[in-house]
Specification:
It is built from 22 helices and seven strands. It has 630 residues and is mainly alpha-helical. A hairpin with a 2-residue loop joins strand 4 and strand 5.
Protein backbone atom coordinates (compact mmCIF):
# COMPACT_ATOMS: atom_id res chain seq x y z
CA UNK A 1 0.00 0.00 0.00
CA UNK A 2 1.13 3.51 -0.69
CA UNK A 3 1.27 6.48 1.66
CA UNK A 4 -2.30 7.47 0.85
CA UNK A 5 -3.55 3.98 1.58
CA UNK A 6 -1.59 3.90 4.84
CA UNK A 7 -3.18 7.19 5.82
CA UNK A 8 -6.58 5.70 5.05
CA UNK A 9 -5.76 2.65 7.16
CA UNK A 10 -4.75 4.88 10.06
CA UNK A 11 -8.02 6.80 9.83
CA UNK A 12 -10.06 3.61 9.79
CA UNK A 13 -8.11 2.21 12.75
CA UNK A 14 -8.77 5.38 14.74
CA UNK A 15 -12.49 5.11 14.04
CA UNK A 16 -12.57 1.43 15.03
CA UNK A 17 -10.78 2.19 18.30
CA UNK A 18 -13.19 5.05 18.93
CA UNK A 19 -16.20 2.76 18.36
CA UNK A 20 -14.71 0.11 20.67
CA UNK A 21 -14.69 2.45 23.67
CA UNK A 22 -18.48 2.79 24.23
CA UNK A 23 -18.91 -0.96 23.68
CA UNK A 24 -16.15 -1.69 26.24
CA UNK A 25 -14.15 -3.74 23.77
CA UNK A 26 -10.51 -3.98 24.80
CA UNK A 27 -8.23 -4.45 21.83
CA UNK A 28 -4.69 -3.36 20.98
CA UNK A 29 -4.30 -0.71 18.33
CA UNK A 30 -1.55 -2.62 16.52
CA UNK A 31 -3.79 -5.70 16.25
CA UNK A 32 -6.58 -3.59 14.75
CA UNK A 33 -4.08 -2.24 12.21
CA UNK A 34 -2.96 -5.77 11.38
CA UNK A 35 -6.56 -6.93 10.98
CA UNK A 36 -7.54 -3.92 8.88
CA UNK A 37 -4.66 -4.43 6.45
CA UNK A 38 -5.57 -8.08 6.02
CA UNK A 39 -9.21 -7.32 5.28
CA UNK A 40 -8.37 -4.49 2.90
CA UNK A 41 -6.31 -6.86 0.75
CA UNK A 42 -9.70 -7.63 -0.77
CA UNK A 43 -10.35 -4.89 -3.38
CA UNK A 44 -14.09 -5.50 -3.12
CA UNK A 45 -14.04 -3.27 -0.03
CA UNK A 46 -13.17 -0.48 -2.46
CA UNK A 47 -9.83 1.04 -1.50
CA UNK A 48 -10.06 4.10 -3.71
CA UNK A 49 -10.53 7.82 -3.38
CA UNK A 50 -14.33 7.72 -3.42
CA UNK A 51 -14.36 4.92 -0.84
CA UNK A 52 -13.17 7.18 1.93
CA UNK A 53 -15.17 10.13 0.76
CA UNK A 54 -18.43 8.19 1.01
CA UNK A 55 -19.12 7.88 4.66
CA UNK A 56 -21.47 4.89 4.42
CA UNK A 57 -18.70 2.65 3.04
CA UNK A 58 -16.41 3.42 5.95
CA UNK A 59 -19.21 2.76 8.41
CA UNK A 60 -19.97 -0.54 6.71
CA UNK A 61 -16.36 -1.66 7.01
CA UNK A 62 -16.06 -0.51 10.62
CA UNK A 63 -19.33 -2.22 11.50
CA UNK A 64 -18.11 -5.49 9.96
CA UNK A 65 -14.87 -5.39 11.95
CA UNK A 66 -16.68 -4.66 15.20
CA UNK A 67 -19.51 -7.17 14.82
CA UNK A 68 -17.71 -10.05 13.13
CA UNK A 69 -14.24 -9.73 14.63
CA UNK A 70 -13.89 -7.73 17.82
CA UNK A 71 -17.18 -8.34 19.64
CA UNK A 72 -16.63 -12.12 19.52
CA UNK A 73 -12.97 -12.42 20.39
CA UNK A 74 -13.27 -16.04 21.53
CA UNK A 75 -14.13 -17.22 18.01
CA UNK A 76 -11.46 -19.46 16.43
CA UNK A 77 -11.14 -17.05 13.49
CA UNK A 78 -10.20 -14.12 15.74
CA UNK A 79 -7.98 -16.29 17.96
CA UNK A 80 -6.07 -17.44 14.88
CA UNK A 81 -5.48 -13.84 13.83
CA UNK A 82 -4.33 -13.01 17.37
CA UNK A 83 -1.66 -15.70 17.54
CA UNK A 84 -0.52 -14.83 14.01
CA UNK A 85 -0.12 -11.20 15.02
CA UNK A 86 1.64 -12.12 18.28
CA UNK A 87 3.98 -14.48 16.44
CA UNK A 88 4.86 -11.86 13.82
CA UNK A 89 5.53 -9.19 16.43
CA UNK A 90 7.60 -11.32 18.82
CA UNK A 91 9.11 -14.57 17.62
CA UNK A 92 10.04 -13.35 14.13
CA UNK A 93 11.85 -10.35 15.66
CA UNK A 94 13.19 -12.03 18.78
CA UNK A 95 16.77 -10.89 18.04
CA UNK A 96 15.59 -7.34 18.56
CA UNK A 97 15.17 -8.17 22.26
CA UNK A 98 18.96 -8.37 22.71
CA UNK A 99 19.58 -4.87 21.42
CA UNK A 100 16.63 -3.52 23.39
CA UNK A 101 17.88 -5.09 26.63
CA UNK A 102 21.41 -3.74 26.16
CA UNK A 103 20.10 -0.26 25.47
CA UNK A 104 17.81 -0.46 28.48
CA UNK A 105 20.72 -1.34 30.79
CA UNK A 106 22.86 1.45 29.36
CA UNK A 107 20.03 3.98 29.77
CA UNK A 108 19.58 3.00 33.41
CA UNK A 109 23.30 3.42 34.07
CA UNK A 110 23.61 6.59 31.98
CA UNK A 111 23.60 8.93 35.01
CA UNK A 112 26.35 6.92 36.74
CA UNK A 113 28.39 6.94 33.54
CA UNK A 114 27.96 10.71 33.11
CA UNK A 115 29.02 11.21 36.73
CA UNK A 116 32.20 9.24 36.07
CA UNK A 117 32.99 11.10 32.83
CA UNK A 118 32.36 14.51 34.40
CA UNK A 119 34.99 13.98 37.11
CA UNK A 120 38.13 15.93 36.19
CA UNK A 121 41.40 16.86 38.00
CA UNK A 122 40.57 14.97 41.17
CA UNK A 123 43.68 15.14 43.37
CA UNK A 124 42.23 14.20 46.74
CA UNK A 125 42.81 10.55 47.67
CA UNK A 126 39.28 10.24 49.06
CA UNK A 127 37.71 11.64 45.90
CA UNK A 128 39.91 9.37 43.82
CA UNK A 129 38.74 6.31 45.76
CA UNK A 130 35.15 7.44 45.40
CA UNK A 131 35.56 7.69 41.63
CA UNK A 132 37.21 4.27 41.57
CA UNK A 133 34.24 2.75 43.41
CA UNK A 134 31.86 4.28 40.88
CA UNK A 135 33.81 2.68 38.05
CA UNK A 136 33.69 -0.67 39.87
CA UNK A 137 29.92 -0.42 40.26
CA UNK A 138 29.45 0.58 36.65
CA UNK A 139 31.63 -2.22 35.23
CA UNK A 140 29.93 -4.86 37.41
CA UNK A 141 26.41 -3.80 36.53
CA UNK A 142 27.00 -3.26 32.81
CA UNK A 143 28.65 -6.67 32.44
CA UNK A 144 25.99 -8.47 34.47
CA UNK A 145 28.55 -10.40 36.51
CA UNK A 146 27.22 -10.22 40.05
CA UNK A 147 25.95 -7.69 42.57
CA UNK A 148 28.52 -4.98 43.41
CA UNK A 149 26.88 -4.34 46.79
CA UNK A 150 28.17 -7.72 47.96
CA UNK A 151 31.58 -7.42 49.56
CA UNK A 152 33.30 -10.35 47.86
CA UNK A 153 32.03 -9.32 44.43
CA UNK A 154 33.17 -5.74 45.00
CA UNK A 155 36.62 -6.85 46.16
CA UNK A 156 37.06 -9.20 43.21
CA UNK A 157 36.08 -6.56 40.66
CA UNK A 158 38.30 -3.99 42.38
CA UNK A 159 41.30 -6.33 42.23
CA UNK A 160 40.71 -7.06 38.54
CA UNK A 161 40.28 -3.36 37.77
CA UNK A 162 43.48 -2.37 39.62
CA UNK A 163 45.43 -4.79 37.49
CA UNK A 164 44.28 -2.86 34.44
CA UNK A 165 43.97 0.68 35.84
CA UNK A 166 46.31 2.03 38.54
CA UNK A 167 46.11 5.45 40.19
CA UNK A 168 48.23 7.22 37.58
CA UNK A 169 46.19 5.74 34.75
CA UNK A 170 43.02 6.74 36.58
CA UNK A 171 44.20 10.35 36.74
CA UNK A 172 45.08 10.22 33.04
CA UNK A 173 41.63 8.78 32.39
CA UNK A 174 40.03 11.81 34.07
CA UNK A 175 42.03 14.28 32.00
CA UNK A 176 41.27 12.60 28.67
CA UNK A 177 38.45 13.58 26.29
CA UNK A 178 34.97 12.16 26.49
CA UNK A 179 35.50 10.00 23.40
CA UNK A 180 38.71 8.57 24.85
CA UNK A 181 36.96 7.92 28.15
CA UNK A 182 34.21 6.03 26.35
CA UNK A 183 36.70 3.85 24.43
CA UNK A 184 38.77 3.12 27.53
CA UNK A 185 35.65 2.31 29.57
CA UNK A 186 34.48 -0.22 26.98
CA UNK A 187 37.92 -1.83 27.04
CA UNK A 188 37.98 -1.94 30.85
CA UNK A 189 34.54 -3.62 30.93
CA UNK A 190 35.76 -6.43 28.68
CA UNK A 191 39.15 -6.85 30.37
CA UNK A 192 37.72 -6.99 33.91
CA UNK A 193 34.99 -9.41 32.80
CA UNK A 194 37.60 -11.62 31.11
CA UNK A 195 39.83 -11.63 34.21
CA UNK A 196 36.94 -12.65 36.46
CA UNK A 197 35.83 -15.40 34.08
CA UNK A 198 39.38 -16.75 33.92
CA UNK A 199 39.62 -16.69 37.73
CA UNK A 200 36.33 -18.58 37.94
CA UNK A 201 37.66 -21.23 35.57
CA UNK A 202 40.78 -21.52 37.72
CA UNK A 203 38.65 -21.87 40.86
CA UNK A 204 40.10 -18.70 42.42
CA UNK A 205 37.17 -16.33 42.03
CA UNK A 206 34.05 -15.73 40.02
CA UNK A 207 31.86 -14.71 42.93
CA UNK A 208 28.29 -13.93 41.79
CA UNK A 209 28.87 -15.36 38.28
CA UNK A 210 26.31 -17.99 37.35
CA UNK A 211 27.24 -21.16 35.52
CA UNK A 212 25.47 -20.10 32.36
CA UNK A 213 26.42 -23.13 30.19
CA UNK A 214 24.87 -25.55 32.64
CA UNK A 215 21.80 -23.37 33.29
CA UNK A 216 21.25 -22.79 29.59
CA UNK A 217 21.38 -26.48 28.70
CA UNK A 218 18.95 -27.39 31.49
CA UNK A 219 16.54 -24.60 30.55
CA UNK A 220 16.55 -25.64 26.86
CA UNK A 221 15.80 -29.25 27.79
CA UNK A 222 12.93 -28.26 30.13
CA UNK A 223 11.34 -25.89 27.60
CA UNK A 224 11.69 -28.47 24.82
CA UNK A 225 10.02 -31.13 26.92
CA UNK A 226 7.11 -28.80 27.72
CA UNK A 227 6.74 -27.82 24.06
CA UNK A 228 6.71 -31.43 22.93
CA UNK A 229 3.89 -32.18 25.35
CA UNK A 230 2.01 -29.15 24.05
CA UNK A 231 2.59 -30.33 20.48
CA UNK A 232 1.18 -33.78 21.32
CA UNK A 233 -2.00 -32.21 22.74
CA UNK A 234 -2.37 -29.93 19.73
CA UNK A 235 -1.86 -32.79 17.26
CA UNK A 236 -4.48 -34.86 19.06
CA UNK A 237 -7.02 -32.09 18.49
CA UNK A 238 -5.84 -31.57 14.91
CA UNK A 239 -6.23 -35.26 14.07
CA UNK A 240 -9.69 -35.37 15.67
CA UNK A 241 -10.99 -32.30 13.85
CA UNK A 242 -9.46 -33.36 10.52
CA UNK A 243 -11.08 -36.79 10.77
CA UNK A 244 -14.51 -35.33 11.54
CA UNK A 245 -14.36 -32.81 8.69
CA UNK A 246 -13.06 -35.38 6.23
CA UNK A 247 -15.96 -37.70 7.05
CA UNK A 248 -18.49 -34.92 6.51
CA UNK A 249 -17.49 -34.46 2.85
CA UNK A 250 -17.85 -37.15 0.21
CA UNK A 251 -16.64 -37.14 -3.37
CA UNK A 252 -19.26 -37.57 -6.09
CA UNK A 253 -18.82 -37.85 -9.83
CA UNK A 254 -21.18 -35.95 -12.13
CA UNK A 255 -20.54 -36.50 -15.82
CA UNK A 256 -16.80 -35.96 -16.40
CA UNK A 257 -15.98 -34.10 -13.17
CA UNK A 258 -15.89 -34.61 -9.42
CA UNK A 259 -17.22 -32.46 -6.61
CA UNK A 260 -17.31 -32.61 -2.82
CA UNK A 261 -20.71 -32.74 -1.14
CA UNK A 262 -21.44 -32.08 2.51
CA UNK A 263 -23.20 -35.06 4.06
CA UNK A 264 -23.60 -35.52 7.80
CA UNK A 265 -22.64 -39.05 8.87
CA UNK A 266 -25.24 -41.13 10.65
CA UNK A 267 -23.41 -41.03 13.99
CA UNK A 268 -23.42 -37.20 13.90
CA UNK A 269 -27.15 -36.85 13.22
CA UNK A 270 -27.95 -37.04 16.93
CA UNK A 271 -25.59 -34.13 17.62
CA UNK A 272 -26.37 -32.06 14.55
CA UNK A 273 -28.06 -29.39 16.69
CA UNK A 274 -24.76 -28.58 18.38
CA UNK A 275 -22.50 -29.31 15.41
CA UNK A 276 -21.34 -26.38 13.27
CA UNK A 277 -19.14 -27.38 10.35
CA UNK A 278 -17.92 -23.83 9.71
CA UNK A 279 -16.92 -23.42 13.37
CA UNK A 280 -15.15 -26.79 13.21
CA UNK A 281 -13.18 -25.76 10.11
CA UNK A 282 -12.14 -22.48 11.75
CA UNK A 283 -11.12 -24.41 14.85
CA UNK A 284 -8.97 -26.71 12.72
CA UNK A 285 -7.23 -23.70 11.16
CA UNK A 286 -6.54 -22.33 14.65
CA UNK A 287 -4.90 -25.53 15.90
CA UNK A 288 -2.99 -25.98 12.64
CA UNK A 289 -1.64 -22.45 13.08
CA UNK A 290 -0.81 -23.22 16.71
CA UNK A 291 0.98 -26.38 15.57
CA UNK A 292 2.98 -24.38 13.03
CA UNK A 293 4.04 -21.87 15.69
CA UNK A 294 5.03 -24.57 18.17
CA UNK A 295 7.13 -26.30 15.53
CA UNK A 296 8.69 -22.93 14.70
CA UNK A 297 9.60 -22.40 18.35
CA UNK A 298 11.14 -25.88 18.51
CA UNK A 299 13.27 -25.00 15.49
CA UNK A 300 14.31 -21.77 17.22
CA UNK A 301 15.30 -23.77 20.30
CA UNK A 302 17.36 -26.16 18.17
CA UNK A 303 19.12 -23.20 16.55
CA UNK A 304 19.68 -21.63 19.97
CA UNK A 305 21.02 -24.90 21.41
CA UNK A 306 23.36 -25.33 18.43
CA UNK A 307 24.60 -21.76 18.75
CA UNK A 308 25.05 -22.13 22.51
CA UNK A 309 27.07 -25.29 21.94
CA UNK A 310 29.35 -23.46 19.50
CA UNK A 311 29.75 -20.66 22.07
CA UNK A 312 30.71 -23.21 24.74
CA UNK A 313 33.36 -24.67 22.46
CA UNK A 314 34.70 -21.22 21.55
CA UNK A 315 34.89 -20.25 25.23
CA UNK A 316 36.71 -23.47 26.11
CA UNK A 317 39.13 -22.84 23.29
CA UNK A 318 39.91 -19.29 24.47
CA UNK A 319 40.27 -20.42 28.10
CA UNK A 320 42.67 -23.11 27.01
CA UNK A 321 44.66 -20.52 25.07
CA UNK A 322 44.86 -18.23 28.11
CA UNK A 323 45.98 -21.10 30.33
CA UNK A 324 48.73 -21.94 27.87
CA UNK A 325 49.77 -18.28 27.70
CA UNK A 326 50.08 -17.72 31.48
CA UNK A 327 51.28 -21.22 32.42
CA UNK A 328 54.50 -21.19 34.48
CA UNK A 329 54.93 -17.45 34.02
CA UNK A 330 55.30 -14.88 36.76
CA UNK A 331 54.08 -11.98 34.59
CA UNK A 332 52.59 -11.56 31.14
CA UNK A 333 52.49 -8.34 29.16
CA UNK A 334 49.11 -6.75 28.79
CA UNK A 335 49.57 -6.59 25.01
CA UNK A 336 49.43 -10.39 24.98
CA UNK A 337 46.86 -11.32 27.61
CA UNK A 338 44.39 -8.42 27.55
CA UNK A 339 43.18 -9.16 23.99
CA UNK A 340 42.50 -12.74 25.13
CA UNK A 341 40.49 -11.46 28.11
CA UNK A 342 38.50 -9.20 25.78
CA UNK A 343 37.84 -12.13 23.45
CA UNK A 344 36.68 -14.25 26.40
CA UNK A 345 34.32 -11.53 27.63
CA UNK A 346 32.83 -11.09 24.16
CA UNK A 347 32.04 -14.81 24.04
CA UNK A 348 30.48 -14.62 27.50
CA UNK A 349 28.32 -11.68 26.46
CA UNK A 350 27.06 -13.77 23.51
CA UNK A 351 26.15 -16.47 25.99
CA UNK A 352 24.22 -13.90 28.04
CA UNK A 353 22.34 -12.94 24.88
CA UNK A 354 21.32 -16.57 24.36
CA UNK A 355 20.00 -16.72 27.94
CA UNK A 356 18.01 -13.57 27.28
CA UNK A 357 16.60 -15.05 24.05
CA UNK A 358 15.61 -18.21 25.88
CA UNK A 359 13.84 -16.19 28.54
CA UNK A 360 11.94 -14.28 25.87
CA UNK A 361 10.94 -17.50 24.07
CA UNK A 362 9.66 -18.94 27.34
CA UNK A 363 7.53 -15.83 27.84
CA UNK A 364 6.15 -16.15 24.30
CA UNK A 365 5.20 -19.78 24.97
CA UNK A 366 3.32 -18.81 28.13
CA UNK A 367 1.34 -16.12 26.30
CA UNK A 368 0.50 -18.48 23.42
CA UNK A 369 -0.91 -20.98 25.91
CA UNK A 370 -3.29 -18.28 27.12
CA UNK A 371 -4.47 -17.67 23.55
CA UNK A 372 -4.97 -21.42 23.06
CA UNK A 373 -7.49 -21.52 25.91
CA UNK A 374 -9.79 -18.86 24.38
CA UNK A 375 -11.65 -20.84 21.66
CA UNK A 376 -14.34 -23.24 22.81
CA UNK A 377 -13.29 -26.86 22.23
CA UNK A 378 -15.96 -29.22 23.55
CA UNK A 379 -14.05 -32.44 24.20
CA UNK A 380 -17.10 -34.48 25.18
CA UNK A 381 -19.16 -33.56 22.10
CA UNK A 382 -16.16 -33.99 19.78
CA UNK A 383 -15.47 -37.52 21.00
CA UNK A 384 -19.15 -38.45 20.82
CA UNK A 385 -19.28 -37.21 17.24
CA UNK A 386 -16.06 -39.06 16.43
CA UNK A 387 -17.55 -42.36 17.56
CA UNK A 388 -15.80 -45.61 18.30
CA UNK A 389 -13.65 -45.58 15.16
CA UNK A 390 -11.34 -42.98 16.60
CA UNK A 391 -9.30 -40.30 14.86
CA UNK A 392 -6.74 -40.88 12.13
CA UNK A 393 -3.30 -39.36 12.45
CA UNK A 394 -1.64 -37.68 9.48
CA UNK A 395 0.63 -40.70 9.04
CA UNK A 396 -2.31 -43.14 9.05
CA UNK A 397 -4.26 -40.98 6.61
CA UNK A 398 -1.31 -40.84 4.21
CA UNK A 399 -0.71 -44.57 4.52
CA UNK A 400 -4.24 -45.33 3.32
CA UNK A 401 -3.60 -43.60 -0.04
CA UNK A 402 0.11 -44.34 -0.43
CA UNK A 403 -0.56 -47.02 -3.06
CA UNK A 404 -2.43 -44.57 -5.33
CA UNK A 405 -0.75 -42.51 -8.06
CA UNK A 406 -1.98 -39.24 -9.51
CA UNK A 407 -2.04 -38.62 -13.24
CA UNK A 408 -2.41 -35.57 -15.44
CA UNK A 409 -3.33 -35.13 -19.08
CA UNK A 410 -2.29 -31.48 -19.04
CA UNK A 411 1.08 -31.05 -20.81
CA UNK A 412 1.88 -28.02 -18.62
CA UNK A 413 1.75 -30.15 -15.46
CA UNK A 414 4.61 -32.48 -14.66
CA UNK A 415 4.01 -35.36 -12.24
CA UNK A 416 7.05 -36.06 -10.05
CA UNK A 417 7.74 -38.57 -7.30
CA UNK A 418 9.44 -38.08 -3.98
CA UNK A 419 12.52 -39.88 -5.29
CA UNK A 420 12.97 -37.20 -7.96
CA UNK A 421 13.99 -34.68 -5.28
CA UNK A 422 17.42 -34.83 -3.67
CA UNK A 423 16.29 -33.19 -0.42
CA UNK A 424 12.53 -33.51 -0.33
CA UNK A 425 12.28 -32.12 3.25
CA UNK A 426 13.59 -28.79 1.98
CA UNK A 427 11.10 -28.57 -0.89
CA UNK A 428 8.40 -25.93 -0.47
CA UNK A 429 4.95 -27.36 -1.13
CA UNK A 430 2.14 -25.00 -2.06
CA UNK A 431 -0.42 -24.34 0.67
CA UNK A 432 1.86 -26.06 3.24
CA UNK A 433 1.16 -29.44 1.68
CA UNK A 434 -2.63 -29.34 2.04
CA UNK A 435 -4.84 -30.65 -0.75
CA UNK A 436 -5.66 -27.74 -3.06
CA UNK A 437 -8.81 -29.35 -4.47
CA UNK A 438 -10.38 -30.19 -1.12
CA UNK A 439 -9.42 -26.78 0.23
CA UNK A 440 -11.61 -25.23 -2.46
CA UNK A 441 -14.43 -27.75 -2.58
CA UNK A 442 -14.90 -27.75 1.22
CA UNK A 443 -14.54 -23.96 1.50
CA UNK A 444 -11.50 -23.95 3.76
CA UNK A 445 -11.02 -27.45 5.20
CA UNK A 446 -7.35 -28.32 5.72
CA UNK A 447 -6.91 -31.89 4.51
CA UNK A 448 -3.23 -32.93 4.14
CA UNK A 449 -2.05 -33.98 0.70
CA UNK A 450 -0.02 -37.14 0.14
CA UNK A 451 3.35 -36.64 -1.60
CA UNK A 452 3.68 -40.42 -1.97
CA UNK A 453 0.90 -40.28 -4.60
CA UNK A 454 2.98 -37.85 -6.62
CA UNK A 455 3.76 -34.14 -6.82
CA UNK A 456 2.20 -32.00 -9.53
CA UNK A 457 4.58 -29.27 -10.68
CA UNK A 458 2.95 -26.31 -12.42
CA UNK A 459 4.79 -23.08 -13.25
CA UNK A 460 7.60 -24.00 -10.88
CA UNK A 461 5.26 -24.65 -7.93
CA UNK A 462 4.66 -28.03 -6.31
CA UNK A 463 1.12 -29.17 -5.49
CA UNK A 464 0.07 -32.29 -3.59
CA UNK A 465 -3.35 -33.90 -3.34
CA UNK A 466 -5.14 -36.29 -1.01
CA UNK A 467 -6.96 -38.20 -3.75
CA UNK A 468 -6.74 -38.94 -7.47
CA UNK A 469 -9.89 -36.94 -8.20
CA UNK A 470 -8.27 -33.76 -6.87
CA UNK A 471 -5.35 -33.91 -9.30
CA UNK A 472 -7.69 -34.82 -12.17
CA UNK A 473 -9.84 -31.74 -11.57
CA UNK A 474 -6.81 -29.51 -10.96
CA UNK A 475 -5.21 -30.57 -14.23
CA UNK A 476 -8.16 -29.36 -16.29
CA UNK A 477 -7.59 -25.70 -15.38
CA UNK A 478 -4.88 -25.09 -12.74
CA UNK A 479 -5.11 -21.29 -12.91
CA UNK A 480 -8.75 -21.34 -11.82
CA UNK A 481 -7.89 -23.36 -8.72
CA UNK A 482 -5.02 -21.04 -7.84
CA UNK A 483 -7.31 -18.03 -8.18
CA UNK A 484 -10.05 -19.72 -6.17
CA UNK A 485 -7.60 -20.22 -3.30
CA UNK A 486 -6.76 -16.52 -3.40
CA UNK A 487 -10.46 -15.66 -3.46
CA UNK A 488 -10.98 -17.94 -0.44
CA UNK A 489 -8.19 -16.15 1.42
CA UNK A 490 -9.90 -12.83 0.75
CA UNK A 491 -13.04 -14.10 2.45
CA UNK A 492 -11.15 -15.82 5.28
CA UNK A 493 -8.28 -13.53 6.37
CA UNK A 494 -6.83 -16.11 8.79
CA UNK A 495 -5.66 -18.11 5.73
CA UNK A 496 -3.56 -15.26 4.31
CA UNK A 497 -0.59 -15.62 6.65
CA UNK A 498 -1.19 -19.28 7.38
CA UNK A 499 -0.89 -20.32 3.71
CA UNK A 500 1.67 -17.56 3.00
CA UNK A 501 -0.43 -15.80 0.36
CA UNK A 502 0.49 -12.17 1.09
CA UNK A 503 2.63 -11.64 -2.02
CA UNK A 504 0.18 -13.42 -4.31
CA UNK A 505 -2.76 -11.33 -3.03
CA UNK A 506 -0.83 -8.10 -3.51
CA UNK A 507 -0.14 -9.01 -7.15
CA UNK A 508 -3.86 -9.46 -7.90
CA UNK A 509 -5.03 -6.54 -5.78
CA UNK A 510 -6.42 -4.71 -8.81
CA UNK A 511 -8.61 -7.66 -9.82
CA UNK A 512 -11.95 -7.61 -8.03
CA UNK A 513 -13.29 -10.94 -9.32
CA UNK A 514 -10.65 -13.62 -9.50
CA UNK A 515 -13.13 -16.32 -10.49
CA UNK A 516 -16.04 -15.94 -12.87
CA UNK A 517 -18.85 -18.15 -11.67
CA UNK A 518 -20.56 -20.16 -14.40
CA UNK A 519 -23.82 -22.05 -14.03
CA UNK A 520 -23.93 -25.47 -15.65
CA UNK A 521 -27.21 -26.79 -16.99
CA UNK A 522 -27.80 -30.49 -16.53
CA UNK A 523 -29.05 -32.06 -19.73
CA UNK A 524 -30.06 -35.33 -18.17
CA UNK A 525 -29.37 -37.38 -15.11
CA UNK A 526 -30.11 -40.98 -14.27
CA UNK A 527 -32.37 -41.45 -11.27
CA UNK A 528 -33.65 -44.57 -9.55
CA UNK A 529 -37.12 -44.25 -7.99
CA UNK A 530 -38.76 -46.86 -5.78
CA UNK A 531 -42.58 -46.72 -5.62
CA UNK A 532 -44.60 -48.15 -2.78
CA UNK A 533 -47.90 -48.91 -4.66
CA UNK A 534 -48.28 -50.59 -8.05
CA UNK A 535 -49.95 -48.45 -10.74
CA UNK A 536 -52.56 -50.07 -13.06
CA UNK A 537 -51.68 -50.35 -16.71
CA UNK A 538 -53.22 -47.77 -19.02
CA UNK A 539 -53.17 -47.89 -22.79
CA UNK A 540 -53.47 -44.64 -24.72
CA UNK A 541 -55.10 -45.22 -28.08
CA UNK A 542 -53.74 -42.02 -29.51
CA UNK A 543 -50.15 -42.78 -28.48
CA UNK A 544 -47.69 -43.11 -31.32
CA UNK A 545 -44.04 -43.92 -31.28
CA UNK A 546 -43.33 -42.72 -34.81
CA UNK A 547 -41.29 -39.51 -34.60
CA UNK A 548 -42.41 -38.45 -38.10
CA UNK A 549 -46.01 -38.58 -37.02
CA UNK A 550 -45.18 -36.34 -34.08
CA UNK A 551 -43.39 -33.94 -36.39
CA UNK A 552 -46.43 -33.83 -38.71
CA UNK A 553 -48.71 -32.94 -35.80
CA UNK A 554 -46.24 -30.29 -34.71
CA UNK A 555 -46.31 -28.75 -38.22
CA UNK A 556 -50.08 -28.72 -38.21
CA UNK A 557 -50.12 -26.98 -34.87
CA UNK A 558 -47.53 -24.51 -36.08
CA UNK A 559 -49.68 -23.76 -39.19
CA UNK A 560 -52.41 -22.38 -36.93
CA UNK A 561 -50.25 -19.33 -36.42
CA UNK A 562 -50.91 -18.38 -40.06
CA UNK A 563 -54.71 -18.75 -39.83
CA UNK A 564 -57.16 -15.93 -39.14
CA UNK A 565 -60.34 -16.29 -37.10
CA UNK A 566 -63.42 -14.09 -38.10
CA UNK A 567 -66.99 -13.84 -36.78
CA UNK A 568 -70.32 -12.49 -38.29
CA UNK A 569 -73.85 -11.74 -37.03
CA UNK A 570 -76.95 -12.67 -39.12
CA UNK A 571 -80.61 -11.85 -38.69
CA UNK A 572 -81.61 -15.47 -38.28
CA UNK A 573 -79.53 -15.98 -35.28
CA UNK A 574 -80.10 -12.58 -33.74
CA UNK A 575 -83.26 -13.81 -32.04
CA UNK A 576 -81.30 -16.44 -30.22
CA UNK A 577 -79.03 -13.90 -28.63
CA UNK A 578 -79.67 -13.36 -24.98
CA UNK A 579 -80.67 -9.84 -24.01
CA UNK A 580 -80.37 -8.58 -20.51
CA UNK A 581 -82.29 -5.61 -19.09
CA UNK A 582 -81.97 -3.84 -15.82
CA UNK A 583 -85.18 -3.26 -13.76
CA UNK A 584 -85.64 -1.35 -10.60
CA UNK A 585 -88.00 -2.22 -7.71
CA UNK A 586 -90.43 0.27 -6.13
CA UNK A 587 -88.95 2.76 -3.78
CA UNK A 588 -90.68 4.20 -0.66
CA UNK A 589 -90.44 7.99 -0.59
CA UNK A 590 -91.64 10.27 2.21
CA UNK A 591 -92.33 14.00 1.97
CA UNK A 592 -92.99 16.61 4.69
CA UNK A 593 -95.50 19.28 3.88
CA UNK A 594 -95.85 21.15 7.19
CA UNK A 595 -93.46 22.90 9.53
CA UNK A 596 -93.63 22.98 13.30
CA UNK A 597 -92.81 26.28 14.96
CA UNK A 598 -93.05 27.92 18.38
CA UNK A 599 -93.30 31.43 19.97
CA UNK A 600 -92.11 32.81 23.28
CA UNK A 601 -94.87 34.29 25.58
CA UNK A 602 -94.18 36.32 28.69
CA UNK A 603 -93.85 34.38 31.92
CA UNK A 604 -96.71 34.94 34.35
CA UNK A 605 -95.85 36.96 37.46
CA UNK A 606 -98.18 37.82 40.43
CA UNK A 607 -97.67 39.76 43.68
CA UNK A 608 -99.75 39.17 46.80
CA UNK A 609 -100.15 42.35 48.75
CA UNK A 610 -100.85 42.27 52.49
CA UNK A 611 -98.98 39.17 53.56
CA UNK A 612 -96.82 41.18 55.89
CA UNK A 613 -97.16 44.43 57.81
CA UNK A 614 -101.03 44.55 57.95
CA UNK A 615 -103.20 44.05 60.97
CA UNK A 616 -106.15 42.84 58.97
CA UNK A 617 -106.21 39.42 57.30
CA UNK A 618 -107.14 40.73 53.85
CA UNK A 619 -104.71 40.36 50.96
CA UNK A 620 -104.83 41.59 47.39
CA UNK A 621 -103.47 39.87 44.26
CA UNK A 622 -101.66 42.20 41.91
CA UNK A 623 -100.84 40.82 38.41
CA UNK A 624 -97.44 41.91 37.12
CA UNK A 625 -97.32 39.86 33.82
CA UNK A 626 -96.14 41.87 30.83
CA UNK A 627 -98.80 42.12 28.12
CA UNK A 628 -98.12 40.32 24.88
CA UNK A 629 -98.60 43.45 22.87
CA UNK A 630 -95.73 45.09 24.64
Amino acid sequence: MGDDDNACVRNIVKEIIRECFPKQIQVHKNFVTYLTKLLLMDPNWGISEDFFVRRENVQKFVGYVLEEMLEKQDRPLVCTLKIQFYFDCNLKHVDYVIETNRNDIRNRLARLKDDIFCSQNVSDKEELDKLFRKIVYYITLISGLGNPTQTRVFQEVSSALKSALDDDELKAFMRSSKISKHELMEQLIKVVAGIRLFNKDCGKGGEGIENLPELLNKAIDVIKEGLQMTLLNVMEKVNTLTTIIDRCYVSKKTYDQFEMLFEIPKNIVDFVAGFDIEYTKDLLVFFRQYELIVRGILEQLDILAHKADSIFKAMEKVLKHIHETVFMRVAVTIQVVFPLFEQLSNIWFQLQDQVLLLSRINQIISNLELYAKQPNYSTSMIHEILGANGALTDAQRLEKTAHLKIRSENPDIEILSVEDFRNFDKIDLEYLGFCCWKLIETDGALIPGNPSMGIARYKGKNFVFSCEEGCSMFSKNPDIFVNRVLDLARRKPQLVNFLQLQDALEKVYGVEKLVQETTKTKLCEDKIVQTLDQVENQIDAEYTWNIWELKREALNLAALLKCKTTSSQTDKVSSTNSIKTQTYSYKDVSQQCSRDNYTNVPARRNFIYGLRGRKSARQFLIELTTPITE
